[in-house]
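Appendix B. Raw example, untouched.
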Amino acid sequence: MDNNIDKKQMQGLLNTVSKKIGIPPEQLKKELEEGKFDSALSAMSPADSAKFQQAVKNPALIEKLMSTPQAKSLYNKLTGGK
């Protein structure tokens, strides 16, 4: 799996996620770069938040999840197939 996302794709993902959780893309980007997930976690249910935190602590699990056909399909939808 190609882990490199160009700037345009990254901005598209940031815009999509920021709309879903209701925070500005710039704030989301800053928090993610700092390794903080406060805004994203506050927008999730407690169960989803716990699952997310578990996944973040396990890079092998993230790699496994991102290589699934469902994750690839979602990525293509979020980025417009680019």
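End of appendix B.
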